[in-house]
Amino acid sequence: MLLSGKIAIVTGATRGIGFAIAKLFIEHGAQVFVNGRDEKHVLAAIDRLKGEHDQVQPIIFDISDDNAVKTAFQTFYKSSKKLDILVNNAGILDDALIGMVTRDQIEKTFATNTFSSLYMSQYAARLMARNKFGSIINMSSIIATTGNSGQAVYSGSKAALIGITKSLAKEVAHLNIRVNAIAPGFIDTDMAHSIPAKLFQERMDSIKMKRIGQPKEVAGTALFLASELSSYVTGQVIGVDGGMLI
Amino acid sequence: MSNKKMITCFVEALGISEEDVVNTLEYNSIPQWDSVAHMQLIAALEEAFDIMLDTDDIIDMSSVAKARQILQKYDIGF
């Protein structure tokens, strides 16, 4: 039990990597607030996560809306008073060749993948500072550093997260708040299966371990970064990609 | 009571004396009230009054008078 007594918020936790992180955190004793913007999906995720545990609660709001983030944190503060772990996981992928990228695509992708991390971290860091303890984990991507055709917007939004991670890590280290990022490779999620078959195979061929990653393998790294196992680790970007990028 | 509590927050966060905490004291007008101290002041006020301030209010808190005005928005009486 690496997270006994800890309180965590995991964004985009209704499925995929976020769900796996919430599940693992609960198994390790954390009280987890499951975020999503769709009430039905959040409640369904909570039903699946509950089992014998009662330390899972919904926190429903759109992370890309700064006003919604503010209201959510003010409500969260009234009931919980402290926050130990924030996982900025929620993200969207909307591929398009550069000549066909719309302003709407750019704004939505950056609002969800990048700006939300800033809004969330603003409030989270203040709560964590009170207890001189906290871990913020940003979900970047292998594409942030390698780039990919048709993913200029997505890769830009995820690359920005690396800069945010490193800057924030420097800013709040003296408060014993650690900020790290995870850069997953090709992970077995709905997002991975949404790409064309040819591209899917190309990605598979580039993985040195010759298999797709599982969400729980990313969750394991999140657990490491959230727990005291990584008490002297901050400002890092940890790849979880089966050797895709070596 | 609230005024005394607010002044204590300024004294402790900025490292200044009680006499220096006057309505006209402004952010960045003295070396002690820089951005780092401002965030320490915010933390002190939030803890003292058991509130969570809106980011816009943190940015707007440009003087002692303004701080009092903002705290009143959070149902803190002076």
- CATH topology of chain B, which one? Non-ribosomal Peptide Synthetase Peptidyl Carrier Protein, Chain A
Rg from Cα of chain A: 17 Å
How would you sum up the global shape of chain A? globular
Mean pLDDT of chain A: 95
Uncertain segments of chain A of ≥5 residues (pLDDT<50)? none
What's the architecture of chain B in CATH terms? Orthogonal Bundle
Name the average pLDDT of chain B. Answer: 96
The largest contact between protein chains, plus residue counts on each side, is: A-B, 10 and 8 residues
Tell me briefly what this model is:
The complex is a heterodimer of chains A (246) and B (78). Chain A is α/β, with parallel strands linked by helices and 246 residues long. Chain A is built from 9 helices and 7 strands.
Provide the fold topology.
The complex is a heterodimer of chains A (about 250) and B (about 80).
Chain A lengths: L6 E4 L5 H12 L3 E6 L2 H12 L5 E5 L5 H15 L4 E4 L14 H29 L2 E6 L3 H4 L5 H21 L4 E8 L5 H4 L3 H9 L9 H12 L10 E4 L6
Parallel strand pairs in A: 1-2, 1-4, 2-3, 4-5, 5-6, 6-7
Chain B lengths: L1 H13 L20 H15 L5 H6 L3 H10 L5
Helix pairs in contact in B: 1-2
Note down, in words, how this protein is organized.
The complex is a heterodimer of chains A (246) and B (78). Chain A has 246 residues and is an alpha/beta fold. Chain A has a single domain (7-240), classed as Rossmann fold, CATH 3.40.50. Chain A has helices spanning 16-27, 39-50, 66-80, 103-131, 143-146, 152-172, 190-193, 197-205, 215-226; strands at 7-10, 31-36, 56-60, 85-88, 134-139, 177-184, 237-240. Chain A has a seven-stranded parallel beta sheet, sandwiched between helices. The radius of gyration of chain A is 17 Å and the shape is globular. The two termini of chain A are 32 Å apart. Chain B has 78 residues and is mostly helical. Chain B has a single domain, classed as Non-ribosomal Peptide Synthetase Peptidyl Carrier Protein, Chain A. Helices cover 56% and strands 0% of the residues of chain B. In chain B, helix 1 packs antiparallel against helix 2 (35-49). Classes of the chains: A alpha/beta (246), B mainly alpha (78). Chains A and B meet through helix 3 and helix 4 of A and helix 2 of B.
